[in-house]
């Protein structure tokens, strides 16, 4: 059984690394979808918090077709460090291949859950404030539309109710179970 101090330290490691990796993932997603960072103060803050370590990597790793490979590499390295530190505190060690695959699985799961939460939040906001402009609604629309648009074309609204978010949530959850689950088993 771990001491409360080690448990608290593991919690802090997971929290600090998790928050920064989440910020990097959001930045990656916004860049990939070509969403401007100048529109919103929260997006500008995200840009300022994640730019310093990425500036160094941009000198060596170029982006390609809106895919920020520097951000991907930084997220992967940070997740590998986090998992290594936590495993060491538990008195375990992980091989480099297993560590890489496990880190990749965690990042894919994070990406999928960001999309899931974005769809759920957009659905809730659409029920609450239909006619008012909200910068968050606009941001969520840009994030979710590449997923929901193809589904809306195949699944028409029934009695005025759009069921495409439900099908998107089911598909994303299945993707997490199947793809991430297989990667975790490989690790």
Structure description:
The chain is an all-alpha fold. The protein has two domains: 1-93, no CATH class; 95-187, no CATH class. 77% of the residues lie in helices and 0% in strands. It is built from six helices and no strands. The protein has helices at residues 4-32, 41-58, 69-89, 96-128, 135-154, 164-186. Helix 1 (4-32) crosses helix 2, helix 1 (4-32) runs antiparallel to helix 3 and helix 4 (96-128) packs antiparallel against helix 6. The longest helix has 33 residues, at 96-128. The protein is globular. The mean pLDDT is 91.
Sum up the structure in keywords.
single chain; 187 residues; mainly alpha; 2 domains; globular
Give the SSE map.
Layout lengths: L3 H29 L8 H18 L10 H21 L6 H33 L6 H20 L9 H23 L1
Uncertain regions spanning at least 5 consecutive residues: none
Tell me the strand percentage band.
under 5%
Radius of gyration: 19 Å
Tell me the total number of β-strands.
0
Contiguous helical run count: 6
Helix content: over 70%
Terminal Cα span: 24 Å
Query: What do the pLDDT scores average to?
Result: 91
Short description:
With 187 residues, this protein is mainly alpha-helical.
């Amino acid at each position: 059984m771990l001491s409360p101090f080690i448990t608290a330290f593991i919690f802090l490691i997971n929290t600090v690394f998790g928050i920064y990796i989440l910020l990097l993932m959001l930045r990656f997603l916004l860049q990939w979808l070509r969403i401007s960072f100048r529109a919103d103060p929260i997006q500008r803050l995200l840009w300022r918090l994640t730019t310093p370590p990425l500036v160094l990597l941009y000198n060596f790793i170029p982006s390609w077709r809106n895919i920020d490979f520097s951000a991907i590499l930084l997220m992967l390295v940070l997740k590998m460090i986090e998992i290594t530190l936590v495993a060491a505190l538990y008195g375990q060690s992980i091989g480099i291949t297993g560590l890489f695959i496990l880190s990749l699985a965690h990042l894919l799961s994070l990406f999928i859950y960001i999309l899931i939460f974005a769809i759920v939040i957009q659905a809730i906001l659409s029920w609450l404030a239909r006619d008012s402009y909200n910068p968050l609604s606009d941001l969520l629309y840009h994030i979710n539309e590449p997923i929901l648009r193809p589904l809306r074309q195949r699944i028409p609204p029934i009695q005025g109710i759009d069921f495409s978010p439900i099908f998107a949530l089911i598909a994303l959850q299945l993707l997490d179970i199947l793809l991430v689950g297989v990667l975790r088993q490989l690790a």
